[in-house]
Amino acid sequence: MGIVTNKTDKYQTCIDACNRCAQACHECFTACLNEDDVAARKNCISILMDCACMCQSSAAKMSMDSQYAKEHCQMCATICDKCAQECEMFKDNHCQKCAQECKKCADECRKMAGM
Question: Domain spanning 9-113 has what CATH number?
Answer without folding.
Answer: 1.20.1270.360
